[in-house]
What does this fold into?
Amino acid sequence: MAKARARTTTRKVKDRWKAKNWYQILAPSLFNNVPVAETLSENPENLVGRVTEVSLQDLTNDFRKSHIKLLFTIDKVEQNTAHTQLKGSLLTSDYLRRMIRRRKSRVDGVFNVETRDGALLRVKPFAIAEKRIQSSQKKLIRNVMHDVIAKEGKAKTLNAFIKDCLEGKIGSEIYKHCKIYYPVKRIEINKTEIIRLPTVIIEDEKPPEKTEEPSEPKEPAKEESEVPAEEELTEEKPAEEKETPVEEEPTAEDREKAEKPKKKTKAKTTTKKKATTKKTTKKKKEAAPE
It folds into this structure.
């Protein structure tokens, strides 16, 4: 009996790791579906709802964005790939501690924003002043934050709004408007949370590709511009040659004026010669009687 029980226990024990499979996690379309990580699961249905944390540096290869963390949730699984959606973003704690110092005021805000495509976001910006400021000034800065974030959210889709938050464009826009009330040192988006996904599908506006089109027609345009340039030069040269021989003929008065100074110079030279001859004759006469 004891041997039979031992056999049954050995049969019941299974290696669960051998039954599990590896699944590749892909980023959302906002980040070009880049592979983010890999995970194990026995059943693909168990993957739905899992949250993965990734640094923005790993997606963009930009070390300046290493302090931003992104949260992705798995929403569907196809074969061995798991597709995700963005859940939110936040700054690392060490980055925040580096910015906050003594004798400086920190202004935090929590605002719910609805985007153009019907998504609902919770945005948490923060501002740091160089000195301690009054509560009335903090209130003005919070009002400016709310106005700018609400304005940007209504004008943009979810993907465009998150992209601007990660790139720091919304923080710089708040900074410009806050200068009126108080010179704030820095403003950034500390955290974003997606509460509701978009209800309307709106394609993001792509910038027009003008770089490739003008490059090809530029070369013939240059050749055309060079050819007339040479023709203009050839046309200008004979014009100049024609203009140079056409000179006004000197009048009789001009000729007389040009000849008069020459005669004067001759007269001066003749007078000098006469004076030298007279001196020589005088000397000869004085020398003769002796």
Summary: The longest strand covers residues 184-196.
